[in-house]
Specification:
The protein has 7 helices and 6 strands. The chain is of the alpha/beta class and 168 residues long. The chain has a single domain, classed as Rossmann fold (3-Layer(aba) Sandwich). The protein has a two-stranded parallel ribbon with strand order 1-4. It has a two-stranded antiparallel ribbon with strand order 2-3. The longest helix is centred in the C-terminal third of the chain and has 18 residues. The protein starts with 8 loop residues before the first helix and ends with a helix. The protein binds adenosine-5'-triphosphate (ATP). The site of adenosine-5'-triphosphate has 14 residues, from helix 1, helix 5 and helix 7. InterPro entries: GK/Ca_channel_bsu, Guanylate_kin-like_dom, Guanylate_kinase, P-loop_NTPase. Keywords: ATP-binding, Kinase, Nucleotide-binding, Transferase. This is guanylate kinase.
Amino acid sequence: MSSPSGTGKSTLLKKLFAEFPDKFGFSVSINGKDYHFTTVDDFKKLIDEKAFIEWAQFSGNYYGTTIKAVEDVATVGRTCILDIDMQGVKSVKNTNLNARFLFLAPPSVEILRQRLEGRGTETQESVEKRIAAATAEIEYSKTGAHDKIIVNDDLDKAYAELKEFILQ
Ligand SMILES: Nc1ncnc2c1ncn2[C@@H]1O[C@H](COP(=O)(O)OP(=O)(O)OP(=O)(O)O)[C@@H](O)[C@H]1O
């Protein structure tokens, strides 16, 4: 699942997890639990072995999602939902994971801006950064890279469409 920041992905996923607490999983948990720690050397080895769907380095620490972590979610009978951006979508497309791609789109860039500002979590600078990234994400979604595009205008309607796509 990918969407520009501020579109409403967390809002919708929260509803989904509340309604279906045992059906889904993430490759890493949101709250910092369930992380798998390893040494930097081992992490670099995994990069060389192309074990990661995506990885990044922030302030000297490495973070990443391995293909195996996603497969592990499936082996316990859950569906793994990945919260990824367009780079992540491209990376997943390069794996053998049997993935389906969903893009959650804002009704317009103007409304996205209102949501980001309304959430009260962003500085003016970070709003501009997110809007610039959103424009690229929206352009990418027009290339047919996703199996489904849901426009999050009305929350209940978007949630119904999300359930229909994800449970099929
Ligand atoms: N359909 C909707 N109509 C109006 N407001 C909405 C709708 N969906 C979500 N919002 C509001 O928009 C704001 C952004 O939503 P949310 O935090 O879920 O976005 P997000 O896509 O998860 O962003 P991020 O990727 O930055 O975490 C929130 O204040 C949320 O309440």
